[in-house]
Amino acid sequence: MNSERPNAVLLNPPSNDIAIRDNFCSKISQAYYINHPIDLLFQSGWLANSFNPILVDAVIDKLTPEACIDRIVSLKPKVIYSLAGNATWPEDSAFFKSLRQNIGKVPLVCSGDIFLESPIDMMDDCPSIDAVLTDFTRDSLYRFLIGQGDHFADLIFRTSNGRIIDHRIPPESSGTFDVPLPRHEMFLMRGYRYPFVRNRHFATVMTEYGCPFKCSFCVMGTLGCKRRSIDSVISELLYLKTLDVRDVFFLDQSFGSDPDRNMLLCNAIQQERPDLRWNCFSRVDLVNRDILLTMKQSGCHTIIFGVETADEKLLKRYRKGYSTEDVTRIFLMAKKAGIRTVATFLLGLPGETLESANKTIEFARQLPCTYASINVAVPRMGTGMRHDALEQGYIDPSIRHFDQSGTEVVMQTEYLSREQLQQLKQLAIRRLYLNPRKLAGMLSSIRTWDEALIQIKEGVQLFKRFKDYHS
Fold it and tell me: How many beta carbons lie within 10 A of that of residue 387, not counting itself?
């Protein structure tokens, strides 16, 4: 730590549960996982130019609100950059109010999915917040703090007289970005965990921001899409090697959204970091046999694919661009390539019926995937689905607190009530996670003792949540 530089606190606020708030995606962990908050990680690189970035993750460290405030006050920060989310907003807003009473005029800057739809309204509702950052890959916050300009493409801020300044521009539909090396050393060995890594000592890396696809239920397509240079990604991976990190979780929403770039990146990884093991999110329409084999050769061991539903009409309605036949074909192809697969599904999309929900659950049981995850659709801020749900009266417009993991269902469909959707999710959990064939496949895919320990903890936590719901 450079004592001559002022402290900048990177904050993940307290929560009564395992809250995940990063990358404009807030939820309560369905089991035990909580990956590194990429927003804080990226900004650590920018802020390190003039500040001492210090991580205060109250979720990982299990800090009470009072203990968290005490720690922040003791650091005497010049700025606090904090996450917030729809899944935790009642806790977050109450905490920010208490924090403000203890830190005086220290700037409190926030980002998160809760601000995507109406950031100015949220700042009005929560006057403790001084600014909102809407793109954590850029240096706007850093320039704002050192007094470089007053027009920012992705930062809304409150002036000393209380006036809110907003000069945002629409996100880029395509483009590039680079960031200074994130300060990974602050985040390693802090208790972060993810179910599909091979080693507990892992890092989270992002090579693409946003998403070029426009699925109407997902917020990522509203953020634009831009990609880091391959040289920048490789530099970060080489830096992680000096920190003895061999396992990486690529947090891109759709890894390899440009197939040609994907091949170049994988070839570069194979050449520069042949020891790397990694997993990622992707889509079935972005890979083929050659791409899967190249990913495997560069160290990819697990791909998480968003399947969403087995109903062909819903796949077309939500512009997924593929069929269930395509899904099955790619999952079989990945299995032959030696890559584990995770299928994620969404129950409760507008248009969902009891028949289509049961069809999706059965499809998930039969799909040749290693793991499956069931979530419930939520009206995420700024999405087309939220707009449609508000028009149809499926949700209360005043509700800002919701969790995409489905801990509490907040949106009905034309045909299914919130109670029915909650019951369907519990049915899906029973049929997927208590399925002997699926369990055998999960166990046979484990390769390391660390991975075995991670999976045991995930299973225990998932069982506890299931048991608590029925108690």
Answer: 13
Query: What is the maximum alpha-carbon separation in the chain?
Result: 64
176-470 has which fold?
A: pyruvate-formate lyase- activating enzyme (3.80.30)
pLDDT digits (tens, 9 = 90+) for 182-227: 999 999 978 899 988 988 899 999 999 999 998 888 889 999 999 9
Give dist(CA 223, CA 298) in Å, integer: 29
Q: What is the pTM of this model?
A: 0.91
HSE-CB for 121 with a 13 A CA cutoff? 8
Q: Report the alpha-carbon distance of residue 324 to residue 326 in Å, rounded.
A: 5
The string of DSSP letters for 166-183 reads E---PPPSS-EE--PPP-
One-letter amino acid of 101: Q
Contact 327, 341 (CB under 8 A): no
Angle at 12 between CA 112 and CA 59, to 5 degrees: 125
The identity of residue 205, as a single letter, is V
Q: Determine the length of the chain.
A: 471
- CATH code reported for the domain at 7-166: 3.40.50.280
The closest of 58, 84, 83, 89 to 71, measured between CA atoms, is 58
